[in-house]
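[Meeting: bench + compute handoff]

Bench side (C.D.) handed over the final construct sequence. Compute side (W.E.) agreed to return the predicted structure before the next meeting so the bench team could plan truncations. Sequence as handed over:
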Amino acid sequence: MNFKNHLTEIAVCFSLYWIFVAPLYFIPDLKSGPLTFYLFLPAGVKLFSILVFKWRGLVGTALGTFTRLTYTDPTQPLISWLIVSVSATFAIYLVVELGLRLMRVERDLSNLKYLQIVLLALVASIINGYVFSYGVSALTIGQMSADLFHSEFLTVMGNFAGNAAFVCLLMLALKQKTVIADFINRLQK
């Protein structure tokens, strides 16, 4: 793969992240806190991007997370948001890489099973929830707040719900790929 392909994959992951995060700003009932959501679909995008694009998914979704955090709270130092976004996304990357090795999944994901995706989503949600909440608490308010466990739990649940919804949408799209392809072909005529 060349440099241009890598940049394209990073841009695709970044764009996918924002395609799924932008609607959250228009549905305020999904917000559980200033930075957390009850249903966080971009968590599924992160998992999917890292599964498919490996380190390029890490870079693209970390950039997406960074820009979301700076947009949501521009009063915080950029370095704090950079540390939070890179560490939380890197934690998911480690979960995916280690999980795939432990479950003996091929690099091309040809033998990846649905239950393995669910397990990866669960572990990634827990690790990401902890790293994200700890990072935000430590770097933005400078101390560990009393509601850290509550914030971690909301982040974990929002991420897992987002992972589940994204995987279900993806599975539905894959099962209906011939219908979707026929529809696109009819639109092009």
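W.E. noted at the follow-up: The helical segments are 3-21, 42-53, 55-72, 78-102, 114-140, 148-175, 177-188. C.D. will use this when planning the next construct.
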